[in-house]
Amino acid sequence: MKNILYIALFSSLLIFSSCKDEEVPATMAMNITIEHVLDGQALELNGKSFTLPSGEDFTPKKFKYYISNVVLTNSKTGETYTEMDSYHLISEDGNKNINLGMIPSSNYDQLTFSIGVDEVANGKIDQTGDLDPNSDMAWNWNTGYKFLVLEGEFTNASSGDRQGLIMHIGTNDNFKTLSQPLSGVKAGMTTSINLTSNLDELFLDPNTLEISELESTTIMFGEVAAQVAENYSNGFFTVK
Amino acid sequence: MRFQFPSWLGLIGMCGLISCGNTEEEPITGPTQISLDAPDYFPSTIAMPTDNPLTAEGVQLGRMLFYEKKLSADGTVSCGSCHQQQKAFSDGNQFSFGVSDSIGDMNSMSLSNLHWQTKFFWNGRAISLEDQAIQPIEDEREMNLPIEEAVNRLQADAKYPSLFKNAFGTSEISSNLIGKALSQFERTLISANSKFDAWIRNEVELSPEEQLGLELFFTHPEPTLQLRGGNCSDCHIGFLTAGDSEGLAGFHNNGLDSEENLSLGLMEITGNSFDRGKFKAPGLRNIALTAPYMHDGRFQTLEEVLDHYNGHIQNNSTLDVLILEASNELPDGSGNVKLHLSDDEKAAIIAFLHTLTDQQFIANPKFSDPFN
């Protein structure tokens, strides 16, 4: 009988404590969604033609890249949340979502992440999950991962020929880290951050690319790849 | 102050356990769930379909159905007729023969590592293995048996109703369950004991020629950087050397025909002219055993295949950009699409392709005809 009394007391305590006041919960749900835009329109990979900043037409066929090492910062308090094992393969045909799950509550005002795979992870390919080398993002056993892949076709402005554009950007020099200010994130509130990745910015800012003028439209290593990487570290992502 | 665990909480816990025990249902007797015996370097992210878990009884039944000639109109042909184990489950013919010597218009695909694929048939018309598995039964050029008739024949058979009961809990046979059993067996057809696998597992070295072939296989060429490549892995991806499983990315137009002669391919399914002439990039495991090659079996040897990719690509409006833009030499202004591999490099790629042959796979007694 005494036990039953204790149970009743304990249960009521539980009930009271769970709906007691407006104290901020210790954790909050955080999700990041990404959409891909080219020339102001949602990206499609089914044969739809888009216009590049140069005015050239472009029909994309494949678009995927790595977002890694996601960090959220509250610059006022100095609190940070760093995602562990943070590698996300984002693909127009596949996943466009980063679910951080329940993270410590804070008024985060900055989102930091990298495009590509850091030097440590890029030095081996016996990895699983989004780094599984069975996706077509691992080059081979020596070269590491492609950080960003864009493939499609365009009409060469001078010859009029149908031509392919193969952008396979990788190598440690092209691993770029960027930060975005966040507004309206409230500690304890379920939050969804909507990122837009603007493909125009691969061809712009600071390096303007006219693909018909390129010596080779296979952009893999070398100077043009480095220019594209500079471009994607600059204005490629915006928080909606 | 350390939090003291009150003893009565333990009592509540006990009560909880007891009540669980009381409501527990009788132990479920049913098929024995098993898991695929796949190496850890195959993708781990592909789940088994929730409505068709792999079971020992389902696989056993699927194996029997795979070799069951009753599933053809005149009882002469089974799945195993066009998918023969010693040829890595292909049949060696340009086009396969169905009942009454009727002939198809596609080359029989080799079967292995199917669990990691998402679209089936050369034109991708089946979106699951379960959906794929029953189509050849009804196809008039293949087994030519209406599926209701297939169900009736199995239902009237002395052994099948109880085998379905063991595998699926019901002896009432349906086309749905036939597809499920067949796909369970097909998922177990894992080929992962080739020399290439032994190399991945660090058990053997490749010969210098095979090693060169491997590097060429997995490299897209970039002539401005003198990076030489055979451009194979752009479509035959990763350790599986199979097509991309995401979206329609695993379908390609590989330059077999001129614009006028382009067949529909994937466009037959999507209705999108962007997909004209695109076919499924098959996995290349055991490729040395599965001649002839291409969706229409037009090439007899791997040498012919390499010659095609190296120098005889037909440019057309949907030619894959990964082929259009792949060359080991800078453009010569002719507009021809050529890979420009040397004879030695072609031979090296073929040597590498032979390391994909898996003798244990083609001799595995678990995959053979149980009626023999």
Descriptive overview:
The complex is a heterodimer of chains A (240) and B (372). Chain A has helices spanning 2-18, 119-122, 222-232; strands spanning 27-38, 41-42, 50-51, 57-74, 79-82, 87-91, 97-104, 110-115, 138-140, 144-155, 162-170, 176-181, 191-198, 218-219, 237-239. Chain A has 240 residues and is mainly β. Chain A has one domain (24-239). In chain A, strands 3, 4, 5, 6, 8, 9, 10, 11, 12 and 14 form a 10-stranded mixed beta sheet that branches. In chain A, strands 1, 2, 7, 13 and 15 form a 5-stranded mixed beta sheet that branches. In chain A, strand 10 (144-155) and strand 11 form a beta hairpin. The N and C termini of chain A lie far apart (59 Å). Chain B has 2 domains: 56-190, Cytochrome c-like domain (Cytochrome Bc1 Complex, Chain D, domain 2, Orthogonal Bundle); 195-361, Cytochrome c-like domain (Cytochrome Bc1 Complex, Chain D, domain 2), CATH 1.10.760.10. Chain B is built from 14 helices and 2 strands. In chain B, strands 1-2 form a two-stranded antiparallel sheet. Residues 1-24 of chain B have low confidence and may be disordered. The A-B interface holds A 3, 6-7, 45-47, 59, 61-62, 91, 93-94, 126, 128-129, 132-136, 138-141, 151-153, 161-166, 168, 215-218, 220-222 and B 6, 8, 11-12, 41-45, 116, 215, 218-225, 227, 233-234, 237-240, 244, 246-249, 270, 272-275, 317, 320-322, 324-326, 330, 335.
Biggest interface, chains and residues, is: A-B, 41 and 45 residues
Arithmetic mean of pLDDT of chain B: 91
Task: Give the CA-based shape of chain A.
Answer: globular
Number of strands of chain B: 2
Spatial gap, N to C terminus of chain B:
75 Å
> How is the biggest beta sheet of chain B arranged?
2 strands, antiparallel
Helix-strand pattern of chain A, N to C?
HEEEEEEEEHEEEEEEHE
Structural class by SSE content of chain B: mainly alpha
Q: How much helix is in the residues of chain B?
A: 25-40%
Instruction: Please tell me the total number of domains of chain A.
Output: 1
End-to-end Cα distance of chain A, whole Å, is: 59 Å
Low-confidence stretches of chain B: 1-24
Category from helices, strands and their pairing of chain A: mainly beta
- Specify the CATH architecture of the largest domain in chain B: Orthogonal Bundle
Q: What would you call the shape of chain B?
A: globular
Oligomer type: heterodimer
CATH evolutionary superfamily of the largest domain in chain B: Cytochrome c-like domain
